[in-house]
Design goal:
disordered N terminus, 3-stranded antiparallel beta sheet, 15-stranded mixed beta sheet, elongated, 2 domains, TIM Barrel, 33% strand
């Protein structure tokens, strides 16, 4: 509350003939201004945070690509892609001949020396569904996708070994009922190996039908902001909101390892305080987030020890976990369903009915979806 | 953030022979310092907020009774009772002959002219269970309960038309396993009409066994702080915590109406962000808290309207409601289980699949218990 | 703390041949997200808040002009100008033929129907001082200033009845010692009526030499952000920071009235929690900000009234005023120098030594500069 | 952000014949709930924080002495004294025969094992001025001061080697004009070595006349809360307020060292965001609080270095320092008078006019009073 920090810009000035070239490099914002999204790694994998659907002035976005880099750095993301519309160029009066790699190039340069992976991307933008909008990322040259035919575009992406995902399949502009539906064309794209993932959360929307399509077709789960103006404004950072992101469980923090993870469906989605993904990754992610830091018997002075044990949990993630106790023991400190707030510590008293040296706590994590309407179940062994 | 308010004390000075009598009356704290607990009324009843289990220096508490009045005013409570231990007087070296009505008298005087009902009470304090500790409130003269025998004490309370409830029946000091159990003695108290209520939430403890005992025996549900030092410290007001309270659904805000409601089981308990009570009162309470302020069709410009409807809810309570969507429609904006934060507004997009002029939204309220492990179900009719 | 608000975008979609034209209109952010800058009007004039020095992608800024409009609306500004560099076009690879009016045109369109005045502007950008950088605002056609010679440019501006001010005259890039110095060329511009104002606060810099130059030459005082990336990041809104702005004392809220005020030196600057300006406007501004809402005699119960009077002030501005008591009375509640926080209420006890029905309080406002190192003196008549 | 921490009470239960003795020991509040007052040590001395004027139920206070200990621990105080009125016992109906050492004894026991020094004290309470109210601390037996005659009481205090100070000498109840005035009786007390200190800040009042009396008579400066109900409520902790305290510059943190410091006038007062004291201690205290952590030349890219140096200050105290730049250099980043917020970092750009390897910054600290209306002057040597 008391930190008023006076920052200074570093001004880079280059001379030209009769005018001054000024490049402003803003000093990295101090920590208090950041709103880091925090998740622990899981056994065997690093948990990387990515947002692979973002716009800039190079299509219908409202910022220069450098802003996207700064936003990502402030939130501690590990990877971004600038994915401007290939076919939709509303700023073309001012930006008449856009090289479709420019967003990437400018962002990449801005991120130089920073711990942020920037990958090249583009949005294939068709006015009708199918196929609607598709994002191709890990592109080598986005311009080669400039083509009226979506199928050809996807094949061009495949030639570049791109990872392609289906954007907002439930968007009411293209699906009046907001229900994602797999069409024969999408079926074909999948069968040809041209479509690898699907946005189950995009901007402010979650689609449980899309989630089911992903499960049924072995598509990678993607969550994206589809941001056009500013992340802070849209997701109300001040109030604790966050953009949708994809969590990628990668062997290391490199572009290649991330692509390998994406191609092998090792992702989860973090949307509106909810985790969505395969239980294979979600269960360890939640368990790593909720560490037991202490166990102790609740003592009643003047008597022998009680049969109630206090277990202290530390939530090391950014999620307010909504838990339902499904252990065989009831709790003394909480009703069966309760919330452990993000980045906080909470003591839970368990009525074990006898003096136990070890016992299991079981919780259903009501905001960790492993399938539509199906929740992650975690078991935590407590040892006194 | 910018409110630094300089308050002044009003000093009341009375003269005595050779010394000064000073009575300090602190000006009511400005609103920003308060942490009001907010709940709406329900049809037919006012929703009163009471804490009927509190201690002062007149037994083992650490404050003069006036502090309990100020705490209640700051939180916007409607009623309190000071219920010092009858048999336990650890401060007797300094307060040797305590009139058991003194806590009440001092608090009552402090509350004069304020919108707070103070009722006389006392805690019958037995070292063994049964009966353990019992609170008798609405007493006329607490001293008449000074007696070694609990049964006699309860009968003396009945003579004064008191309302008696069983305190912390799951307290590990008296129940090693923390499991509330109805004993023959409690059975007798109930049968004789001497015991009317039971704490199902006390201090930091919830007892689902006590909740079941209440249901099985038609006992009034009570939630209390059992505070000994300060509410703000114990319940971490700064972090948004709150003391357990009893919500009383009374015909009007008077002591008599409140007693009538208590004797007729018209209460609910607010504990640790959870409501607990009979669905007859809990369902309207939650529904009054979650008002629909707007419904609109989600539009996609350039096309006809969509089949998705946005419904705006305003949560006018102090509870962060954890909802599970059980409607026949899925949501576009949220996964099935989500939280509507206290005193906030949230828009929920519903996929009605066709253009409906009216439809029902159904939610299970996962932090509104109507029986152990059973949750309030609410249906909200949406009219476009 | 509890406001998590779920906003929705309104999507405007227009069809083109084989692609989709999407225009995103973000719903106006709810009030809690805004960081309004608040100042009262003064007798005879409206107090308008303007920032007339801002950059976009049309020179070396990092945002599309629409973002500048939204930033201004969130802060409650009354007027802005987009003033991209005429001669410095680092984005010209992507924006090759920029019409110098485009920033204005786009911002103007975005502000349509909003309570924000957008005026056309441009920055004359010379690599050497003199003249350094100059802003011309209220332009009709910025392209007509495209010219290598600064003097010619200023004359072209004059032909359009522009208001011209000297930017950051103390910028170390052009003044190694950071000391603003009036050169013969600036002298000439003033004499020819081509230069009307001077930035005494720009970005994170204040120049007391520039302030003196303004006084000596009857130049209008200007404070500007010179923003290139985002206001929220640079000025740490979360911590209560603010961008430098010009306060314009105008007869009404119109572009014409604002220009008339600027041409007649009716401005003040709000920089880093400090007001800077002519005492003719600063004194009434501070006095309107610090309203007396109550006066009362401090009473000592049981005795006659005291000779101490409590005066309650309400600071209705965004400035934390640092006051020095220069009244003939000393204070009982404060040491001579103290702060009245922005938008707060404070009671000040004055030792008047006898029972007065009326008396004067005098303060030097230590963060209201009326000349270099000279502070506003205010007298407030207190009537009981 | 700091979320909801579920704390548990530790219940200490002792058995008696037919009732339960319960002593509640609340677990030390976690750090986020504390509002530590922070000041650095100065060369040669530890800076101890004490509040030597506090009330409990043993006179007209509203809390048991244990609460005073917990309040002090939460604020990180080093020393407290409970100083109940000797002659004023409004609770005597309930506490009929108070041993005047009881407040001390109970507080001392509560503080056992904690890093808090509790010293015995009492308030000599006369209805008229002189002598008004006097606090005697470091008493061995407060009961020996029970006596109608103030002079005799002071002599009894001296026999116990007590430190005696004059309370709120400007209190309007006893000084209608609020002006502290040295009477012959006080003169006599000082001459006899019976009066050693004076409250220049008490509760919400500062007295510059008392400050002058202290200087003229070599009395120790004292600042006290004179708290009767709760510190958090009175001083609005949530808004960043604080109680008045005495800073004691002691050779070590012991009762004896503290007394030695008090008897040798090595104190300062912290009142309402202002430091008041002898410049001998205040100047090093402020200098220790405002550490230079970095100095660097402000660079303008593409040119040689500038003549502007950026100096980063870290304010390691709880005071928002109001500084006036009195260096021979003007600042580029600030107007001459500005605030460095408590516990924050700020960069100040200095226009040194040439490239200096070392130079002096001089500030008048406008909220550090070394005499009435006279302020601490600090000089900070900057070395590049």
């Amino acid at each position: 509350m008391k930190n008023k920090i006076n920052t200074r810009k570093l001004i880079t000035v280059l001379l030209t003939l009769n005018s001054v070239i000024i490049t402003e490099t803003t000093a990295q914002a101090p920590h208090s201004h950041k709103h880091d999204i925090e998740f622990p790694n899981i056994p065997g994998f690093k948990t990387l945070k990515g947002d692979f659907h973002q716009h800039t002035v190079f299509s219908d976005g409202q910022v220069w690509p450098t802003i996207r880099v700064e936003e990502a750095l402030r939130e501690g993301l590990d990877a971004i892609s600038i994915t401007d519309h290939l076919e939709y160029q509303p700023h073309k009066r001012d930006i008449p001949h856009p090289d479709r790699n420019r967003g990437y190039q400018i962002a990449k340069k801005k991120a130089k020396g920073k711990d942020l992976i920037v990958i090249n991307g583009a949005e294939i933008t068709k006015k009708v569904m199918p196929p609607g909008h598709l994002n191709a990322i890990f592109l080598k040259d986005a311009n080669k996708l400039l083509n009226d035919d979506a199928l050809s575009q996807c094949r061009a992406a495949k030639k570049q070994d791109a990872f392609v995902f289906w954007n907002h399949p439930s968007w009411v502009r293209q699906r009046k009922d907001g229900v994602a539906t797999l069409t024969p064309m999408h079926r074909q794209l999948i069968d040809e190996g041209l479509l690898h993932g699907i946005e189950i959360a995009s901007e402010s929307e979650y689609s449980e039908e899309a989630f089911q399509i992903a499960i049924d077709n072995n598509l990678t789960l993607i969550g994206s902001s589809d941001i056009h103006h500013l992340i802070a404004w849209k997701y109300h950072e001040k109030e604790g909101g966050h953009r949708p992101i994809t969590l990628i469980f990668a062997k290391e923090k490199t572009s290649e390892a991330m692509k390998e993870a994406l191609l092998n469906q090792r992702t989860a989605v973090y949307f509106n305080n909810t985790l969505i993904g395969n239980s294979e990754y979600l269960v360890p992610l939640v368990k790593q987030s909720l560490r037991v830091t202490k166990t102790e018997i609740v003592k009643a002075h003047g008597t022998k020890n009680s049969f109630v044990q206090a277990v202290t949990f530390k939530n090391e993630s950014d999620v307010d976990y909504i838990l339902e106790n499904t252990s065989k023991f009831s709790l003394q400190s909480h009703t069966p369903i309760f919330t452990i707030k993000a980045n906080s510590t909470m003591k839970i008293n368990v009525k074990t009915l006898e003096l136990l040296n070890t016992f299991d706590l079981k919780f259903t994590v009501l905001n960790a979806l492993v399938a539509p309407k199906k929740y992650a179940e975690i078991t935590i062994k407590i040892i006194r």
